[in-house]
Amino acid sequence: MEFVLDRTDTQTHARAGRLTTAHGVIETPIFMPVGTVGTVKGIAPDLLQTQVQAQIILANTYHLYLRPGTELLKEAGGLHRFMAWKGPILTDSGGYQIFSLAERRKLTEDGARFQSHIDGSYHQFTPENVMDMQRAIGADIIMAFDECPPGDAPETHVRTAHERTLRWAERCRRRLGETEPLYGYDQALFAIVQGGIFPEIRRESADRLIELECPGYAIGGLSVGESAEHMYAMVEVVNERLPAHKPRYLMGVGTPENLLENIARGVDMFDCVMPTRNGRNGMLFTTEGIINIRNLKWQRDFSPVDPGLDRYASRTFTKAYLRHLFVAGELLGLQLASLQNLAFYLWLMKEARLAILEGRFLGWKQDILPRITQRR
Amino acid sequence: MEFVLDRTDTQTHARAGRLTTAHGVIETPIFMPVGTVGTVKGIAPDLLQTQVQAQIILANTYHLYLRPGTELLKEAGGLHRFMAWKGPILTDSGGYQIFSLAERRKLTEDGARFQSHIDGSYHQFTPENVMDMQRAIGADIIMAFDECPPGDAPETHVRTAHERTLRWAERCRRRLGETEPLYGYDQALFAIVQGGIFPEIRRESADRLIELECPGYAIGGLSVGESAEHMYAMVEVVNERLPAHKPRYLMGVGTPENLLENIARGVDMFDCVMPTRNGRNGMLFTTEGIINIRNLKWQRDFSPVDPGLDRYASRTFTKAYLRHLFVAGELLGLQLASLQNLAFYLWLMKEARLAILEGRFLGWKQDILPRITQRR
Asked: Within 10 A of B151 (CB to CB), how many other CB atoms are there?
């Protein structure tokens, strides 16, 4: 994996870069659609490529381990082949999912023992077997196994989690060095900076992980209930330390506003379920603002879903038709809304990149934010 | 609307024809995917065209009247524009749906009063207002308002229903003559032959409706619980009477076997929810037989969904992947299965047409039936 910075903004910390993987080049800043169990919900890979124009997607080790299972993925020749997605894939390590299980998991220095959310069966994740699973899945970018404390965790707990995350990251790196990729291409390990909303712990976490010389770094443990101000402050603290020549991935974030504000703070990569999950609930992100398509006000609105976006779902169908699909509970509504929202997110990243390259990012951000964040 | 017969089979009664509408030419025999409320469930119109290769789709007056309403469809410029489908559309009259409401409807000579299945509100359908609704919807082919008795109805009831259907067909024809199409193209009225499983009533219904000189005829009141033998016998009885130079549409039928057997008996057009509904339940029609994709036997089967069908859904994904999508309850599974099944139905019609044109329909049918109807 290679990362090249094409331009760093002078008024902000925004960066435009290119990340080269075995499955293609990713132009950053980038948003990664979430394909938890090997499918971006409701969107076939061909449309993901042509309509969403996704450059990389995210999948989840935890979910894929439970279903269809990493052994089956190995037989299939890896996740790319299994799901027929030809572009790059990043897999999360399962750390976040396991720690979301709360009462259903138990933590030791060795790893995490947990009960499946599907059938209650018991499983053990360790830094080592999580690396092996990600070898079997075959993602281009794989995440270290981390401990992600809850948003309201006290400082002592956050410190313990950071220290364990550090030891686990070392074990991940060692395991990866002892094993080979299964499908003939390299897999890049990103370590995850923890530290909650405590600047000192964040700095320490970043500094210590940098010593591992990973090809990229993620900022984890945010978007877990803290305020946007806390999130931005922590991103600033961490990005001050992270090496400029390596990609930075802010996990699980966020709204279009969150994305632009964090790009301004030097983040290169994002993922979030919001565009697909909110889309399935009838909430549309458009170039003209945020729409609840179920509202009566759209019943007779025969204007396109999003006239500002040059995509099939955005231009072909009217708001009245999309509302009808939601009111009638039709599958096509979920698909079109997901396509619109993901296409919007990817469009926003493309526009941001262009603005950075042309040295007008700050002005562009100030212009576009009121327009795309207004409720219509 | 114009109907041309390209060839009539000499060993069977199969016909290959072309039906020209304002929205395109339909090559018969043809299967019409069902788009009840203005969407073929889970399939966007572009894929309906390129992947399913649908030539005409069906929508329902009853459902569209309730949601989004025919006034709204008028404002939208008709159903074609509302749903962004450029090809021909046929609308059923609502007769079948209303008579399915059983306890929630009351019949008089004037029409049918019924309660909405959505909110229990009261509505009245008459031959006249059903024609007006179908004017507003703007389908290329519209159906007369009929009384469709249940499959186990006694002969006296079936006779009464046939006689009322006849009087209603006359009223439909008159109303259509008194009104103009709303969107600048002609709409062709098909009358519906009733008569249950009683040959004498079927003959009388056909003979009397032929006098109305409609541009096409449908056979209704079948596929309502009777045996396949009864269905085939009734189709034979009716098709002996129907004029050869007009298209014949068998409503609500059926399995791939039903389609081929009825093509052999001179039917040109079909519709059925089976490919989409069964698809959503994980039942796949393929060129190699019928598959329940949820079965454990497909868990590690990395062969294509249907190697014999040259379509994205059929060739790109493995049975193991599609099974995974169903087991995980993923939306994409419903879409891919629906695409596969509809593409298979349309492929089957295309192959049947080719076989008729080349004078080898009977042999082809005998060859292909065991293959496509086997349970795998």
From this structure: 15
Nearest Cα of chain A lies from the Cα of B40 at a distance, in angstroms, of 8
State the Rg of chain A over Cα.
Answer: 20
Set A9, A92, A268, A306: catalytic member: A92
From the list A103, A138, A107, the residue with the least C-alpha distance to A120 is: A103
> pTM surpassing 0.95?
yes
Tokens matching residue B177: 């003559």
Q: Per the CB < 8 Å rule, is A321 touching B83? A: yes
d(CA B21, CA B226): 33
CB contact under 8 A, B82 and A312: no
Nearest to B68 among A39, A44, A324 (CB): A324
Angstrom distances, CA of residue B177 to CA of A331, B37, B131, B132, B324: 38, 27, 10, 11, 54
Per-residue pLDDT of chain A (376 residues; tens, 9 = 90+): 999 999 999 999 999 999 999 999 999 999 999 999 999 999 999 999 999 999 999 999 999 999 999 999 999 999 999 999 999 999 999 988 988 887 889 999 999 999 999 999 999 999 999 999 999 999 999 999 999 999 899 999 999 999 999 999 999 999 999 999 999 999 999 999 999 999 999 999 999 999 999 999 999 999 999 999 999 999 999 999 999 999 999 999 999 999 999 999 999 999 999 999 999 999 999 999 999 999 999 999 999 999 999 999 999 999 999 999 999 999 999 999 999 999 999 999 999 999 999 999 999 999 999 999 999 9
Q: What are phi and psi of A358, to 5 degrees?
A: -95, 10
Q: How many CA atoms lie within 13 A of B169 on its CB side?
A: 29
Q: Which residue of B has its CA nearest to A313?
A: B44
Instruction: Check if B210 contacts A (Cβ < 8 Å).
Output: no
With contact defined as beta carbons under 8 Å apart, do A326 and A282 qualify?
Answer: yes
**Do the chains contact at B321 and A84, CB–CB below 8 Å?**
yes
> Which residues in chain A are closer than 8 Å to B38, comparing Cβ atoms?
321, 324
Q: How far is A134 from chain B (nearest CA, A)?
A: 18
B268 as an active site residue: the answer is: no
Rounded Cα–Cα distance for residues A233 and A260 (Å): 14
- A321·B82 Cβ contact <8 A: yes
